[in-house]
Sequence to fold (94 residues):
Amino acid sequence: MGIYASDNIFGIRIYIFNEDDISNTLFEEKYDEIMSHEQIRQAGLFYEILYDKTNIHFKIYTECSCTLSNNKNTYMDWYPITLQTFLEKFGIKN
Fold:
């Protein structure tokens, strides 16, 4: 049971938390369609040029579904991903 995200990426948010645990968005793009290879490449380039990559967090905007819902409809939401998942999905070599 829980919330499940699809593999389709409609957006990306790259952010950090400051000393007060308030998030600071560094990069965010959200689209009505699945991100193109060019859009994915642009997000990857942004990450690559970051000077300080410590404590970076990622979320993708994607289709989600909930097993607790009786109607089984999907909805769009920001879903957290790990650094490793970001690197894999956005084609960045470690």
Notes: The chain has one domain: 3-89. Residues 3-89 form one domain.
